[in-house]
């Protein structure tokens, strides 16, 4: 055989190589490369391949013995075949006593016959020792391929067979003395209870029958015992159970898990679906035709009928669908009744002009549920109650165009936890403060109104600039009164827009601004009732960089309200133009959407107003045309520069909650 370097394989691959022993001519290269001493010890892989069959057999035998010694050190290996499989299964591999296995020791004399390459009955196959017809019958089954305890593994060095039968996965080299002897069989298998022994009767009913189990009285009565002919001979017929106890009263509260089944996983899926815009279970966040509402008209078919008042926010009461129908369409049935389907359907946008007069303040605002806190100016409280309560029409999720991911995040992280707070002890409190930041007119106030609607809460609106205008003392009184009013009338959403106007870092250097920061922080800390159950504080700003760290930290959640994307702009424009009696065709609308890139929702509304004003149509004698809008585009443009938008994104990355 001609020797080539590819024969120089490590020993662990050796059995897989074909070993041709037909040639007796030694390779001169081998002789030159191999050191004269230590060849046998260190250079197994370089052993001659031109050797006789007898030499090969002897060599294999010797290597096998050597490796068995290396492997077993310091573990003292018992005689081959000393362990049966049961020894490993019982964890008695360290038992110094030889296990009385039924199999005889492995016949070492036939080891080499199993090696591939030997021109023997094994046929030079790939089975290694395990493939030997002689050994395969003697090897323990199954073969353990490796050592999972991090020690030297048997698998690479004794490929497919050798030693594999001795090393179980997880087997660590250790002395047998370190292991305790196996416990007596009586301990391993406790005796069965009386009456359940192998020789005992099958059933062992107590003589007087079973006593009624407390707490299961509401279960239906058990079936009558089978008639005597069907009972096993010798088996005592069970005594019927006594009459069931009166049913326990239904629980008045429900746990978080019960109230929102699969909330955790479902929510994540929903967010994922919203992010990806993929077809998922929560397709309401992507553009699609409206789905049929739930049978009861509820946004989310809750499995519970409970009314969670843990934090003052309540889920929608039954019959909300009818109420919503009256509110929105004046009796006209709506396609989506309280269902937050964020699709391109126009119905939700058309319902604004048709809305019935503003309903009476929702929640329990009209009936104070709490005492006004001491130290609050009664005049300021009266002012807040009469002037700052938002009585506008409710805003559903579908009324906010676009912002799918943000709406999903608000609902998941704010609305659901507030409506259904976790009931288990030690669970984190739902967030009570949220900051919405983004360009002017992006829809921060609209989203706040939507939050109030979803929570069934009263909305109190404060403007930072208005608070800062009259003077520091009066502004502070108003601020405290607003928080107090919210606390007195839960559930309530307190919206403080232009939050930056209250803080010291103002560009215009308003004198009172800085003075309002301390009262604001005190109120946000709970001093004015912000931490009370049933009060959610929403701060909005278009200058998030003006917020110092103290203020920023007070808002548990911080969400970026971005400018509307193309489809959202199309929706807002359609709705605004429909109010002015203008209907653009598809091409014109697409062109308008294209031309209004970078516009906020507020600016799109201004564009339509400008178009109407430019056309000189105060009374709308003729419908607006595309040309009017083109002309208005020359006058109204986006206010936020790309640099501003970048700074929002940066701030969001640093301090935002992400969505
Ligand atoms: N995504 C939207 N869908 C429908 N209407 C929108 C949307 N975004 C904004 N609008 C409309 O634009 C107008 C301005 O919105 P809003 O007052 O909520 O903006 P804002 O972010 O609070 O602005 P500011 O920073 O000036 O307070 C509102 O009439 C609102 O209805
Ligand atoms: Mg606003």
UniProtKB/TrEMBL annotation:
Origin: domain of life: Eukaryota
Region called Disordered, residue ranges: 1-36, 91-129, 218-252
Any GO MF annotation of the entry: microtubule severing ATPase activity
Subcellular location: Cytoplasm, Cell cortex
Residue ranges annotated for the AAA+ ATPase domain, each copy included: 430-565
Cofactor(s) this protein cannot do without: Mg(2+)
Statement: the UniProt record of this protein carries the keyword ATP-binding: yes
GO cellular component: cell cortex
Segments of skewed composition (Pro residues): 97-107, 219-229, 239-250
Family as reported in the entry's similarity comment: Belongs to the AAA ATPase family.
Job of this protein: Microtubule-severing enzyme that negatively regulates cell migration and wound healing. In migrating cells, targets dynamic microtubules (MTs) at the leading edge and severs them, thereby suppressing motility. Microtubule severing releases ARHGEF2 which activates RHOA, which in turn regulates focal ahesion turnover via focal adhesion kinase, as opposed to F-actin polymerization, to suppress cell motility. Negative regulator of axon regeneration that suppresses axonal growth by selectively severing dynamic MTs in the distal axon shaft and growth cone.
Protein name: Fidgetin-like protein 2
């Amino acid at each position: 055989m001609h020797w080539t370097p590819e024969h120089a394989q490590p020993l662990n691959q050796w059995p897989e190589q074909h070993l041709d022993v037909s040639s007796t001519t030694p390779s001169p290269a081998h002789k030159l490369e191999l050191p004269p001493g230590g060849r046998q010890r260190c250079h197994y892989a370089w052993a001659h391949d031109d050797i006789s069959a007898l030499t090969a057999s002897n060599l294999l035998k010797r290597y096998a013995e050597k490796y068995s010694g290396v492997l077993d050190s310091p573990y003292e290996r018992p005689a081959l075949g000393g362990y049966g499989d049961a020894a490993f299964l019982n964890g008695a591999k360290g038992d110094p006593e030889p296990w009385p296995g039924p199999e005889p020791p492995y016949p070492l004399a036939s080891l080499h016959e199993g090696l591939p390459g030997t021109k023997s009955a094994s046929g030079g196959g790939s089975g290694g020792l395990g493939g030997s017809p002689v050994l395969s019958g003697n090897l323990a089954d199954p073969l353990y391929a490796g050592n999972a305890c991090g020690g030297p593994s048997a698998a690479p060095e004794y490929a497919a067979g050798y030693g594999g039968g001795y090393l179980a996965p997880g087997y660590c080299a250790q002395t047998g003395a370190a292991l305790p002897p196996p416990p007596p069989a009586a301990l391993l298998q406790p005796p069965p209870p009386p009456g359940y022994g192998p020789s005992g009767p099958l059933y062992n009913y107590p003589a007087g029958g079973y006593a009624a189990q407390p707490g299961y009285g509401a279960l239906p009565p058990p079936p009558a015992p089978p008639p005597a002919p069907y009972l096993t001979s010798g088996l005592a017929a069970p005594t019927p159970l006594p009459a069931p106890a009166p049913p326990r009263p239904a629980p008045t509260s429900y746990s978080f898990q019960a109230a929102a089944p699969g909330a955790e996983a479902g929510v994540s899926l929903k967010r994922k679906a919203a992010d990806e815009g993929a077809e998922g279970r929560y397709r309401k966040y992507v553009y699609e035709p409206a789905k049929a509402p739930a049978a009861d008209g509820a946004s989310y078919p809750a499995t519970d009928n409970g009314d969670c008042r843990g934090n003052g926010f309540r889920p929608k009461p039954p019959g909300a669908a009818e109420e919503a129908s009256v509110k929105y369409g004046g009796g006209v049935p709506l396609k989506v009744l309280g269902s937050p389907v964020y699709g391109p359907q126009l119905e939700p946008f058309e319902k604004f002009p048709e809305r019935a007069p503003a309903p009476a303040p929702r929640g329990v605002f009209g009936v104070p549920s709490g005492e006004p806190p001491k130290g609050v100016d009664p005049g300021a409280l009266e002012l807040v109650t009469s002037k700052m309560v938002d009585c506008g029409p409710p805003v559903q999720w579908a009324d906010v165009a676009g912002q799918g991911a943000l709406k999903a995040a608000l609902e998941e992280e704010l609305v659901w936890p507030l409506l259904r707070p976790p009931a288990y002890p030690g669970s984190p409190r739902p967030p009570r403060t949220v900051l919405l930041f983004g360009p002017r007119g992006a829809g921060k106030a609209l989203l706040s109104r939507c939050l109030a609607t979803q929570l069934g809460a009263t909305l109190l609106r404060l403007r930072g600039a208005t608070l800062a205008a009259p003077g520091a003392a009066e502004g502070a009184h108003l601020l405290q009164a607003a928080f107090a009013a919210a606390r007195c009338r839960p559930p309530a959403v307190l919206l403080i827009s232009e939050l930056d106007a209250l803080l010291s870092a103002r560009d215009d250097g308003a004198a009172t601004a800085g003075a309002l920061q301390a009262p604001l922080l005190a109120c946000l800390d709970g001093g004015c009732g912000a931490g009370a159950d049933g009060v959610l504080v929403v701060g909005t700003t278009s200058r998030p960089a003006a917020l110092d760290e103290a203020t920023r930290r007070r808002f548990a959640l911080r969400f970026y309200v971005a400018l509307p994307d193309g489809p959202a702009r199309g929706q807002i424009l359609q709705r605004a133009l429909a109010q002015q009696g203008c209907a653009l065709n598809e091409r014109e609308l697409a062109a308008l959407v294209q031309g209004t890139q970078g516009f906020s929702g507020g600016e799109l509304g201004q564009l339509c107003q400008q178009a109407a004003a430019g056309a000189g149509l105060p009374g709308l004698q003729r419908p607006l045309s595309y040309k009017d809008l083109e002309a208005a585009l020359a006058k109204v443009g986006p206010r936020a520069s790309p640099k501003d938008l970048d700074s929002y994104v940066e701030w969001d990355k640093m301090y935002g909650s992400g969505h």
